[in-house]
Amino acid sequence: MLLWKNYNNEYLNLSPPTFGLNFLNNMKSANKDFMLLCGFEKFDDVYVRIDILERLFLLIFNSEKDEKKEVKVIPEMLNLLGCSKENFRKLLKKMNYKIYEKENEFYIKYIPLKKKIFKKHDKKDYSNNPFSVLNELNLK
Fold it and tell me: What global pTM score does this model have?
């Protein structure tokens, strides 16, 4: 961190987050590059330690899934991040998980973002273009 701060002289006043914090909320003014160097990944105004995210994903992948690939939210997930249930819900929404409640239990399901498919437009007639003469030049 000292090398990064020396290289970027304008950020000498930055200090790393308090040791032991895994989840940092309302960090809109934090420097994303510095926080990444400190081991935190950014999700809008929320930062989460990268190693804790990895553990969270392992909990999700190794949890029992039902036939719809739903994962039950367990207290260990909240304890791992050290955040409130509401902040946990916000974070999962930012990571493209759908969160819903059934039978007084919370479940999550990963919903990947759909890629936009662009329609191919009909080719336009560029014959009146003043640069169309360049196509006729033989520059080989």
Answer: 0.67
